[in-house]
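Input (structure):
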Protein backbone atom coordinates (compact mmCIF):
# COMPACT_ATOMS: atom_id res chain seq x y z
CA UNK A 1 0.00 0.00 0.00
CA UNK A 2 0.92 3.65 0.19
CA UNK A 3 0.74 4.04 3.94
CA UNK A 4 -2.02 5.94 5.71
CA UNK A 5 -5.05 5.89 3.35
CA UNK A 6 -6.88 8.98 4.66
CA UNK A 7 -9.67 9.14 7.21
CA UNK A 8 -12.55 7.62 5.23
CA UNK A 9 -10.65 4.42 4.41
CA UNK A 10 -8.79 4.28 7.75
CA UNK A 11 -12.17 4.20 9.54
CA UNK A 12 -14.22 2.64 6.74
CA UNK A 13 -16.57 0.74 9.07
CA UNK A 14 -17.25 3.81 11.22
CA UNK A 15 -17.62 6.63 8.70
CA UNK A 16 -20.89 6.69 6.76
CA UNK A 17 -20.06 8.11 3.32
CA UNK A 18 -21.75 7.13 0.06
CA UNK A 19 -19.46 6.26 -2.84
CA UNK A 20 -16.90 3.61 -3.78
CA UNK A 21 -14.22 5.91 -5.13
CA UNK A 22 -12.87 7.95 -2.22
CA UNK A 23 -11.50 11.38 -3.04
CA UNK A 24 -8.60 11.76 -0.63
CA UNK A 25 -5.35 13.65 -0.08
CA UNK A 26 -4.51 11.14 2.65
CA UNK A 27 -5.63 13.58 5.33
CA UNK A 28 -5.67 12.76 9.05
CA UNK A 29 -3.20 10.79 11.18
CA UNK A 30 -2.03 14.16 12.47
CA UNK A 31 0.47 14.49 15.34
CA UNK A 32 -0.64 14.37 18.97
CA UNK A 33 2.17 16.38 20.51
CA UNK A 34 2.88 16.54 24.25
CA UNK A 35 3.00 20.22 25.32
CA UNK A 36 5.54 20.45 28.12
CA UNK A 37 5.31 24.15 28.81
CA UNK A 38 1.50 24.15 28.85
CA UNK A 39 1.54 21.09 31.11
CA UNK A 40 3.83 22.93 33.56
CA UNK A 41 1.62 26.03 33.49
CA UNK A 42 -1.63 24.15 34.13
CA UNK A 43 -0.59 21.20 36.29
CA UNK A 44 -2.24 18.97 33.69
CA UNK A 45 -0.99 16.56 31.07
CA UNK A 46 -1.59 18.58 27.92
CA UNK A 47 -1.43 17.36 24.32
CA UNK A 48 -1.90 19.31 21.11
CA UNK A 49 -3.76 17.69 18.22
CA UNK A 50 -1.97 19.48 15.39
CA UNK A 51 -4.54 19.75 12.61
CA UNK A 52 -2.41 22.21 10.65
CA UNK A 53 -0.53 19.10 9.52
CA UNK A 54 -3.40 18.14 7.23
CA UNK A 55 -2.87 18.48 3.44
CA UNK A 56 -4.45 21.94 3.12
CA UNK A 57 -3.37 23.01 6.59
CA UNK A 58 -6.57 22.61 8.60
CA UNK A 59 -8.98 20.07 10.10
CA UNK A 60 -11.46 20.82 7.31
CA UNK A 61 -9.81 18.16 5.13
CA UNK A 62 -11.29 15.40 7.31
CA UNK A 63 -14.79 16.53 6.42
CA UNK A 64 -14.00 17.54 2.85
CA UNK A 65 -12.75 14.10 1.77
CA UNK A 66 -16.15 12.81 2.87
CA UNK A 67 -18.18 15.65 1.34
CA UNK A 68 -16.44 15.56 -2.04
CA UNK A 69 -16.58 11.75 -2.15
CA UNK A 70 -20.34 11.94 -1.57
CA UNK A 71 -20.76 14.75 -4.12
CA UNK A 72 -19.04 12.64 -6.79
CA UNK A 73 -21.16 9.60 -5.88
CA UNK A 74 -24.30 11.70 -6.31
CA UNK A 75 -23.20 12.83 -9.76
CA UNK A 76 -22.64 16.42 -8.75
CA UNK A 77 -20.50 18.59 -11.05
CA UNK A 78 -20.06 21.62 -8.80
CA UNK A 79 -19.77 22.44 -5.11
CA UNK A 80 -20.28 25.65 -3.17
CA UNK A 81 -19.45 26.81 0.33
CA UNK A 82 -19.35 29.86 2.56
CA UNK A 83 -16.12 30.25 4.44
CA UNK A 84 -13.88 32.28 6.68
CA UNK A 85 -11.08 30.71 4.61
CA UNK A 86 -10.22 27.17 5.61
CA UNK A 87 -13.33 25.43 4.34
CA UNK A 88 -12.90 27.23 1.02
CA UNK A 89 -9.22 26.21 0.78
CA UNK A 90 -10.12 22.60 1.47
CA UNK A 91 -13.16 22.53 -0.81
CA UNK A 92 -11.12 24.06 -3.64
CA UNK A 93 -8.36 21.44 -3.26
CA UNK A 94 -10.61 18.36 -3.05
CA UNK A 95 -12.88 19.64 -5.82
CA UNK A 96 -9.84 20.18 -8.06
CA UNK A 97 -8.71 16.62 -7.34
CA UNK A 98 -12.13 15.23 -8.21
CA UNK A 99 -12.53 17.36 -11.35
CA UNK A 100 -15.43 19.36 -9.91
CA UNK A 101 -16.01 23.08 -10.16
CA UNK A 102 -15.90 24.92 -6.85
CA UNK A 103 -17.36 28.26 -5.83
CA UNK A 104 -16.53 29.91 -2.52
CA UNK A 105 -18.29 32.80 -0.78
CA UNK A 106 -16.01 34.69 1.58
CA UNK A 107 -16.45 37.84 3.67
CA UNK A 108 -14.63 40.65 1.88
CA UNK A 109 -11.35 41.65 3.50
CA UNK A 110 -11.82 39.22 6.42
CA UNK A 111 -10.04 36.11 5.25
CA UNK A 112 -6.38 35.42 5.94
CA UNK A 113 -3.99 35.80 3.01
CA UNK A 114 -2.78 32.19 2.83
CA UNK A 115 -6.32 30.87 2.65
CA UNK A 116 -7.21 33.18 -0.23
CA UNK A 117 -4.00 32.10 -1.99
CA UNK A 118 -5.07 28.45 -1.67
CA UNK A 119 -8.50 29.06 -3.21
CA UNK A 120 -6.83 30.95 -6.07
CA UNK A 121 -4.21 28.23 -6.61
CA UNK A 122 -6.81 25.46 -6.78
CA UNK A 123 -8.92 27.38 -9.27
CA UNK A 124 -12.01 28.12 -7.21
CA UNK A 125 -14.54 30.70 -8.34
CA UNK A 126 -14.05 33.20 -5.51
CA UNK A 127 -16.92 35.52 -4.64
CA UNK A 128 -16.05 38.16 -2.07
CA UNK A 129 -19.26 39.20 -0.35
CA UNK A 130 -19.91 42.55 1.23
CA UNK A 131 -21.06 40.89 4.45
CA UNK A 132 -19.87 38.51 7.16
CA UNK A 133 -19.65 34.70 7.27
CA UNK A 134 -23.25 34.37 8.40
CA UNK A 135 -24.39 36.32 5.32
CA UNK A 136 -22.19 34.14 3.10
CA UNK A 137 -23.65 30.94 4.55
CA UNK A 138 -27.18 32.12 3.95
CA UNK A 139 -26.30 32.93 0.32
CA UNK A 140 -24.59 29.57 -0.18
CA UNK A 141 -27.57 27.68 1.26
CA UNK A 142 -30.04 29.55 -0.96
CA UNK A 143 -27.90 29.02 -4.05
CA UNK A 144 -27.53 25.28 -3.38
CA UNK A 145 -31.27 24.94 -2.72
CA UNK A 146 -32.19 26.44 -6.08
CA UNK A 147 -29.38 25.36 -8.40
CA UNK A 148 -27.50 22.14 -9.25
CA UNK A 149 -24.56 22.71 -6.88
CA UNK A 150 -23.75 20.73 -3.74
CA UNK A 151 -23.32 22.60 -0.46
CA UNK A 152 -20.17 21.42 1.36
CA UNK A 153 -20.43 23.46 4.54
CA UNK A 154 -20.73 21.46 7.76
CA UNK A 155 -24.54 21.73 7.53
CA UNK A 156 -23.91 18.89 5.06
CA UNK A 157 -24.04 15.95 7.51
CA UNK A 158 -21.35 13.96 5.70
CA UNK A 159 -18.79 16.63 6.72
CA UNK A 160 -19.42 15.82 10.39
CA UNK A 161 -18.92 12.10 9.68
CA UNK A 162 -15.44 12.80 8.35
CA UNK A 163 -14.46 15.25 11.06
CA UNK A 164 -15.36 12.91 13.92
CA UNK A 165 -12.32 10.78 13.00
CA UNK A 166 -10.06 13.17 14.92
CA UNK A 167 -11.62 11.89 18.16
CA UNK A 168 -10.94 8.30 17.06
CA UNK A 169 -7.29 9.08 16.34
CA UNK A 170 -6.80 10.70 19.75
CA UNK A 171 -8.27 7.69 21.57
CA UNK A 172 -6.29 5.28 19.40
CA UNK A 173 -3.00 7.03 20.28
CA UNK A 174 -3.70 7.58 24.00
CA UNK A 175 -5.34 4.18 24.51
CA UNK A 176 -8.13 6.01 26.35
CA UNK A 177 -10.29 9.13 26.04
CA UNK A 178 -8.90 12.38 27.45
CA UNK A 179 -10.51 13.89 30.58
CA UNK A 180 -11.04 17.25 28.88
CA UNK A 181 -11.04 18.30 25.22
CA UNK A 182 -10.52 21.98 24.34
CA UNK A 183 -11.67 23.39 21.00
CA UNK A 184 -12.11 26.77 19.33
CA UNK A 185 -15.75 27.13 18.26
CA UNK A 186 -17.05 29.12 15.29
CA UNK A 187 -19.80 27.56 13.21
CA UNK A 188 -19.74 24.68 15.74
CA UNK A 189 -19.44 21.78 13.29
CA UNK A 190 -16.19 20.58 14.77
CA UNK A 191 -17.30 20.36 18.40
CA UNK A 192 -20.39 18.51 17.15
CA UNK A 193 -18.18 16.10 15.20
CA UNK A 194 -15.72 15.43 18.04
CA UNK A 195 -18.55 14.73 20.44
CA UNK A 196 -20.10 12.27 17.98
CA UNK A 197 -16.73 10.51 17.61
CA UNK A 198 -16.08 10.26 21.33
CA UNK A 199 -19.61 9.08 22.06
CA UNK A 200 -19.43 6.37 19.39
CA UNK A 201 -16.12 5.02 20.69
CA UNK A 202 -17.46 4.96 24.25
CA UNK A 203 -20.77 3.35 23.20
CA UNK A 204 -18.90 0.58 21.35
CA UNK A 205 -16.58 0.01 24.30
CA UNK A 206 -13.43 0.98 22.39
CA UNK A 207 -12.65 3.32 25.31
CA UNK A 208 -14.18 3.64 28.78
CA UNK A 209 -15.60 7.13 28.73
CA UNK A 210 -15.70 10.45 26.92
CA UNK A 211 -14.05 13.77 27.72
CA UNK A 212 -15.68 16.93 28.99
CA UNK A 213 -15.95 19.25 25.99
CA UNK A 214 -14.64 22.79 26.58
CA UNK A 215 -15.59 25.14 23.72
CA UNK A 216 -13.93 28.53 23.41
CA UNK A 217 -15.07 31.55 21.41
CA UNK A 218 -13.58 34.99 20.87
CA UNK A 219 -15.14 37.65 23.11
CA UNK A 220 -16.45 39.66 20.14
CA UNK A 221 -17.93 36.56 18.50
CA UNK A 222 -19.29 34.48 21.39
CA UNK A 223 -22.95 33.67 20.63
CA UNK A 224 -22.83 30.30 22.40
CA UNK A 225 -21.34 31.84 25.53
CA UNK A 226 -24.00 34.57 25.62
CA UNK A 227 -26.83 32.27 24.53
CA UNK A 228 -27.85 34.47 21.61
CA UNK A 229 -26.62 35.31 18.11
CA UNK A 230 -24.17 38.19 17.65
CA UNK A 231 -25.16 40.58 14.83
CA UNK A 232 -21.72 42.04 14.12
CA UNK A 233 -19.08 39.51 15.19
CA UNK A 234 -15.54 40.89 15.44
CA UNK A 235 -12.21 39.26 16.34
CA UNK A 236 -8.64 39.07 15.13
CA UNK A 237 -9.25 35.31 14.85
CA UNK A 238 -11.06 35.68 11.51
CA UNK A 239 -11.63 31.92 11.19
CA UNK A 240 -14.12 32.07 14.08
CA UNK A 241 -15.62 35.47 13.32
CA UNK A 242 -19.14 33.99 13.30
CA UNK A 243 -22.28 35.32 14.98
CA UNK A 244 -24.86 32.65 14.25
CA UNK A 245 -23.38 29.13 14.34
CA UNK A 246 -25.19 26.63 12.10
CA UNK A 247 -24.50 23.71 14.46
CA UNK A 248 -25.71 25.57 17.56
CA UNK A 249 -27.76 22.60 18.79
CA UNK A 250 -24.87 20.17 18.31
CA UNK A 251 -22.56 22.37 20.34
CA UNK A 252 -25.05 22.69 23.20
CA UNK A 253 -25.60 18.93 23.21
CA UNK A 254 -21.83 18.35 23.37
CA UNK A 255 -21.48 20.71 26.30
CA UNK A 256 -24.50 19.41 28.23
CA UNK A 257 -23.98 15.67 27.67
CA UNK A 258 -20.28 15.92 28.52
CA UNK A 259 -20.59 18.22 31.54
CA UNK A 260 -18.51 20.70 29.57
CA UNK A 261 -18.54 24.48 29.20
CA UNK A 262 -18.37 27.42 26.81
CA UNK A 263 -16.15 30.36 27.61
CA UNK A 264 -15.10 33.57 25.84
CA UNK A 265 -11.45 34.62 25.48
CA UNK A 266 -10.20 38.08 24.52
CA UNK A 267 -8.21 38.80 21.36
CA UNK A 268 -5.33 39.78 23.63
CA UNK A 269 -5.37 36.37 25.32
CA UNK A 270 -5.69 34.64 21.95
CA UNK A 271 -2.58 36.46 20.72
CA UNK A 272 -0.68 35.65 23.92
CA UNK A 273 -1.51 31.95 23.49
CA UNK A 274 -0.60 32.18 19.79
CA UNK A 275 2.85 33.51 20.68
CA UNK A 276 3.31 31.02 23.50
CA UNK A 277 2.52 28.09 21.19
CA UNK A 278 4.99 29.24 18.56
CA UNK A 279 7.63 30.54 20.94
CA UNK A 280 7.58 27.87 23.65
CA UNK A 281 6.09 24.73 22.14
CA UNK A 282 7.42 25.18 18.59
CA UNK A 283 3.91 24.82 17.17
CA UNK A 284 2.87 27.58 14.75
CA UNK A 285 -0.90 27.87 14.49
CA UNK A 286 -3.33 30.45 13.23
CA UNK A 287 -5.01 32.78 15.77
CA UNK A 288 -8.35 30.93 15.93
CA UNK A 289 -6.50 27.75 16.88
CA UNK A 290 -4.85 29.52 19.79
CA UNK A 291 -8.31 30.20 21.26
CA UNK A 292 -8.34 26.60 22.54
CA UNK A 293 -5.09 27.22 24.42
CA UNK A 294 -6.17 30.65 25.67
CA UNK A 295 -9.24 28.89 27.05
CA UNK A 296 -7.14 26.10 28.57
CA UNK A 297 -5.09 28.69 30.46
CA UNK A 298 -8.19 30.67 31.53
CA UNK A 299 -10.00 27.62 32.91
CA UNK A 300 -6.85 26.40 34.65
CA UNK A 301 -6.54 29.84 36.28
CA UNK A 302 -10.19 30.09 37.38
CA UNK A 303 -10.26 26.56 38.81
CA UNK A 304 -12.66 24.97 36.34
CA UNK A 305 -9.96 22.74 34.84
CA UNK A 306 -9.11 20.10 37.45
CA UNK A 307 -5.36 19.76 38.09
CA UNK A 308 -3.93 16.46 36.90
CA UNK A 309 -6.37 16.14 33.99
CA UNK A 310 -5.38 14.56 30.71
CA UNK A 311 -6.23 17.36 28.27
CA UNK A 312 -6.20 17.53 24.49
CA UNK A 313 -6.33 20.92 22.77
CA UNK A 314 -7.06 20.84 19.06
CA UNK A 315 -5.04 23.44 17.21
CA UNK A 316 -7.16 23.63 14.10
CA UNK A 317 -5.12 25.44 11.44
CA UNK A 318 -1.52 26.14 10.42
CA UNK A 319 0.18 29.44 11.27
CA UNK A 320 1.24 29.94 7.65
CA UNK A 321 -2.42 30.53 6.80
CA UNK A 322 -2.19 34.01 8.28
CA UNK A 323 1.22 35.60 7.68
CA UNK A 324 -0.10 39.11 8.39
CA UNK A 325 -0.82 38.27 12.03
CA UNK A 326 2.58 36.61 12.39
CA UNK A 327 4.31 39.75 11.15
CA UNK A 328 2.27 42.21 13.25
CA UNK A 329 4.61 44.71 14.85
CA UNK A 330 7.73 43.42 13.12
CA UNK A 331 10.18 46.35 12.96
CA UNK A 332 11.73 47.54 9.69
CA UNK A 333 15.44 46.78 9.75
CA UNK A 334 18.29 47.77 7.46
CA UNK A 335 19.86 44.80 5.63
CA UNK A 336 23.42 43.93 6.68
CA UNK A 337 26.48 44.21 4.47
CA UNK A 338 28.11 40.87 3.45
CA UNK A 339 30.45 40.96 6.42
CA UNK A 340 30.96 38.41 9.27
CA UNK A 341 31.71 41.23 11.68
CA UNK A 342 28.35 42.83 10.97
CA UNK A 343 26.57 39.51 11.64
CA UNK A 344 28.41 38.98 14.91
CA UNK A 345 27.68 42.58 15.87
CA UNK A 346 23.97 42.34 15.03
CA UNK A 347 23.71 39.16 17.11
CA UNK A 348 25.57 40.84 19.99
CA UNK A 349 28.22 38.10 19.92
CA UNK A 350 31.02 40.60 20.27
N1 LIG B 1 -10.41 26.94 13.76
C1 LIG B 1 -10.21 27.22 12.47
C2 LIG B 1 -8.80 27.40 12.02
C3 LIG B 1 -11.30 27.31 11.59
O1 LIG B 1 -11.08 27.58 10.31
C4 LIG B 1 -12.60 27.15 12.09
C5 LIG B 1 -13.76 27.28 11.21
C6 LIG B 1 -12.75 26.85 13.45
C7 LIG B 1 -11.65 26.75 14.25
C8 LIG B 1 -14.09 26.64 14.07
O2 LIG B 1 -14.64 25.41 13.67
O3 LIG B 1 -16.69 26.27 12.63
O4 LIG B 1 -16.45 23.86 13.19
O5 LIG B 1 -16.71 25.56 15.00
N2 LIG B 1 -13.69 27.68 10.01
C9 LIG B 1 -14.81 27.71 9.08
C10 LIG B 1 -14.32 28.04 7.68
C11 LIG B 1 -15.94 28.52 9.52
O6 LIG B 1 -15.07 28.60 6.88
O7 LIG B 1 -13.17 27.73 7.36
P1 LIG B 1 -16.22 25.26 13.62
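Output (sequence):
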Amino acid sequence: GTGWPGVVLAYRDRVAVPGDVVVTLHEGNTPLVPARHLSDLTGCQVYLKVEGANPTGSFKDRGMTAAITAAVAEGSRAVICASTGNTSASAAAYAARAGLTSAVLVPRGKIALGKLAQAVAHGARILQVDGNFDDCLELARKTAAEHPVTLVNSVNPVRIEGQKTAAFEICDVLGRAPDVHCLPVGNAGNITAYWRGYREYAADGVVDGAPRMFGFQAEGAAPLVHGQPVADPETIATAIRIGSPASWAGAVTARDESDGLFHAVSDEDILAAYRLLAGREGVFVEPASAASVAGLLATAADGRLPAGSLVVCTVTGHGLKDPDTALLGMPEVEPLPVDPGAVAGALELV
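Notes: The two ends are 55 Å apart (CA to CA). The chain has a mean pLDDT of 97.
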